[in-house]
UniProtKB/TrEMBL annotation:
Name of the protein this chain belongs to: Rhamnose mutarotase
Classification via InterPro entries: Dimeric_a/b-barrel, Rham/fucose_mutarotase
Gene3D superfamilies: 3.30.70.100
A Pfam short name: rhaM
GO MF term list: racemase and epimerase activity, acting on carbohydrates and derivatives
SUPFAM superfamilies assigned to the protein according to its UniProt record, in alphabetical order: Dimeric alpha+beta barrel (SSF54909)
Top-level taxonomic group: Eukaryota
Length: 122
């Protein structure tokens, strides 16, 4: 069940086909500092799915803080996360025109609009 003030986020990006094995491998052991930065930014229930026919990565997460933009800025300023992105960004192709990489002014991942949600009975 979602916290009353949580925000769900869904994002997509293209994975370069030749990077699939490396991307899977690095995500099998995400760096502890990267996970700590996400935790400090109130990100929970984060997962990334892969749809191979069109090389689509689909990330979903819940944000439980009160200032999403400020917390995402803190993640982008985290040195360990910046090193992580220096590795993973090269494996991806952004759908966002003008995107230069994660944590920059123009978003690297494309955030999707939620059009339906079913949470079941409380």
């Amino acid at each position: 069940m979602s916290a009353p003030h949580s925000k769900r986020v869904c994002q997509i990006i293209k994975l370069k086909p030749e990077a699939e094995a490396e991307y899977r491998n690095i995500h099998a052991s995400v760096w502890p500092g990267v996970l700590a930065a996400l935790e400090r930014a109130h990100i929970v229930d984060y997962s990334i799915h892969y749809y191979r026919p069109i090389q689509l990565l689909i990330a979903t997460m819940k944000y439980t803080g009160t200032d999403y933009e400020a917390d995402m800025k803190k993640v982008a300023e985290d040195p360990e996360t910046q090193k992580w992105w220096a590795v993973t960004d090269g494996m991806q192709e952004s759908f966002v025109e003008g995107a230069q990489g994660s944590g920059k002014e123009v978003p690297w991942w494309t955030e999707l609009e939620e059009v339906f949600r079913f949470e079941g009975k409380p």
